[in-house]
Specification:
It holds the Pfam family HTH_77. InterPro entries: AAA_16, HTH_77, OmpR/PhoB-type_DNA-bd, P-loop_NTPase, Sig_transdc_resp-reg_C-effctor, WH-like_DNA-bd_sf. This is ATPase/DNA-binding winged helix-turn-helix (WHTH) protein. Keywords: DNA-binding. By secondary structure, this protein is of the alpha/beta class. It has 4 domains: about 100 residues, Orthogonal Bundle (Arc Repressor Mutant, subunit A); about 140 residues, P-loop containing nucleotide triphosphate hydrolases (Rossmann fold, 3-Layer(aba) Sandwich), CATH 3.40.50.300; about 90 residues; about 130 residues, Arc Repressor Mutant, subunit A (Orthogonal Bundle). It has 22 helices and 13 strands. It has a 5-stranded parallel beta sheet with strand order 8-9-10-7-11, sandwiched between helices. Helix 10 packs across helix 12, helix 11 packs across helix 12 and helix 16 packs across helix 17.
Length: about 525
């Protein structure tokens, strides 16, 4: 197959006409026609379609589309999805010719009657090596997770990857989809929901991958689910948490109607539908205490940080001292991929020492993600804002109060700290369950015992919220009393006793020395 060079959106008057199914894409007149009649298509959508069509079957990456269509403008990746929806709507029954290749880009499928009138030979650019046909950079430290998830998918109809923001759910889902598509030729359809907030928009996003026209003003949810139920293969649903009710409805209807379709979803919340199996995605592995240099360098968390450091132009020799500094940074960020990538980017400007010191206030220092990343992945604070805003008032209160714990805690300890006259023990326990489900609190099983903890960035975010709510002094004092065994139960329920008086019974200076990270408010 000959691969035409992707060109800028400005086309010569004698540019080619490309047949796309029953439609003609006239690059010279910048027009899309069906049966000789013009089809309405916006300027940006035309440029996206032209760039994909000129690739002549080669997969066009998102970065290539951004460069071709928005060369001098910083835009979000969501713009591509918006334009593709418009293109598929304009193509009507030929919408299925525009393929989404998970993790790689977009492609014009070869139709039996597809033809292209090429550029004159002297005007055609040199053939371009289809780099996008190769898989993206290898995932670090996820082979075991991928193997386990694929094993789950062999028997489960619905698998949901659940985890905190920036933990790597989407990357894992895309990698699994890529492997199934290339190794087993599985038909994969990808639904990206980050930009959709209404029920109608969610239904339309699912309709866009159905390869079928829908009559009326907009597709009906049940109709879309029935069409999806007739499509075998893998349906990947990404970023479902903020519209989880609508997604759950579609997924439940689809899975019940079709035993051949497998659904792989990513979400900070589980869908809570029948037939669903949940896989909790955790941070990248850190080196074990006392590991030698080689073992530290093989650690997935260290490897990701160094990879991003190199990609940001830092080529300094990794001496033992610098490697120890990198290890400390990665440990303090607890192996969270997004935090590691943002820290490496900042380290390329501030240096390793600068970023290590800045991690006392990680939400201030860890920002500046990829331009094409979703807004909530541009900084750690944005990642937490996205999820915190979806909590109800009680869940927000419990989360920020539990941020005073800098180590694992029991549900009984959580209740002592978080409850008050309006939050009973039962309510606190319910909130903890919701916060675990929504990936803001991690759960640990130690034999028959269960404990909980907040990852370091989540604690920093919670402390900011605690300060903003005007509760930080009260909750720190309550934690000090609890840690010393001097917290009167009655003081939390009714406020009848005086915690400050009880606090005088303990050696406050010694407690602050034992809890340095809890001894000061954020920014102090």
């Amino acid at each position: 197959m000959n691969h035409a060079t992707a060109v800028s959106p400005s086309f010569a008057p004698h540019a080619p006409v490309i047949q796309v199914g029953e439609c003609e894409l006239d690059l010279g007149l910048r027009a899309l026609r069906r049966g000789g009649k013009a089809v309405d298509l916006g300027s940006r959508a035309f440029d996206v379609l032209a760039t994909i069509a000129l690739a002549a079957g080669r997969i066009v990456s998102k970065d290539e589309l951004m460069e071709a269509v928005w060369p001098d403008t910083i835009v979000e990746e969501n713009n591509i999805h918006v334009q593709l929806s418009a293109i598929r709507k304009a193509l009507g029954t030929d919408r299925k010719l525009i393929l989404t290749v998970p993790g790689r880009g977009y492609q014009l499928a070869a139709a039996p009657d597809a033809r292209i009138m090429p550029l004159p030979r002297h005007e055609a650019g040199p053939a371009r090596e289809p780099n996008e046909l190769r898989a993206g950079e290898p995932l670090l430290g996820r082979d075991a997770a991928i193997a386990e998830i694929r094993s789950m998918m062999s028997s489960a109809r619905i698998v949901t990857l659940v985890g905190a923001g920036g933990i790597g759910k989407t990357r894992i889902a895309r990698e699994i989809a890529h492997r199934l598509a290339t190794e087993q030729e599985v038909d994969v359809r990808f639904v990206e929901l980050a930009a959709h907030v209404t029920r109608a928009a969610v239904v339309q996003a699912f309709a866009d991958v159905c390869d079928a026209p829908f009559d009326g003003n907009g597709p009906d949810l049940r109709t879309v689910a029935n069409v999806l139920a007739g499509l075998p293969g893998l349906l990947v649903i990404d970023n479902a948490e903020h519209v989880v009710e609508h997604v759950a409805e579609i997924v439940d209807l689809t899975s019940r109607a079709n035993p051949r379709v497998t659904i792989l979803a990513t979400s900070r919340f589980r869908l809570r539908v029948s037939l669903e199996v949940v896989y909790r995605v955790g941070p990248l592995a850190l080196p074990s205490a006392g590991d030698g240099r080689d073992a530290v360098l093989r650690s997935p968390a260290i490897g990701l940080f160094l990879r991003r450091l190199l990609s940001n132009g830092v080529n300094a020799e990794m001496s033992d001292e610098r490697l120890r500094m990198v290890e400390e940074i990665c440990r303090r960020l607890e192996g969270i991929p997004l935090a590691l990538e943002l820290a490496a980017r900042r380290a390329s400007i501030l240096g390793l020492e600068g970023i290590r010191e800045g991690l006392d206030e990680p939400l201030l220092y860890l920002a500046g993600g990829y331009r094409t990343a979703q807004p909530r992945h541009q900084s750690l604070r944005a990642a937490f804002d996205w999820c915190f805003d979806m909590l109800d008032a009680a869940e927000q209160t419990v989360f920020r109060r539990l941020s005073v714990f800098n180590r694992a805690f029991t549900v009984q300890a959580a209740s002592q700290i978080a409850r008050d006259a309006t939050l009973s023990n039962e309510t606190v326990m319910d909130c903890i369950g919701e916060l675990v489900d929504k990936s803001l609190i991690e759960i640990q099983f130690e034999g028959a015992n269960v404990k909980y903890h907040l990852l370091a960035p989540a604690r920093a975010y919670g402390l900011e919220k605690l300060l903003a709510a005007g509760e930080i002094c009260t909750i720190f004092e309550r934690h000090a009393l609890f840690a010393s065994g001097h917290l009167p139960a009655i003081s939390i329920e009714s406020g009848a006793s005086n915690p400050s008086r009880a606090l005088k019974k303990i050696d406050a200076r010694r407690w602050h020395e034992d809890h340095p990270s809890l001894s000061r408010a954020p920014g102090s």
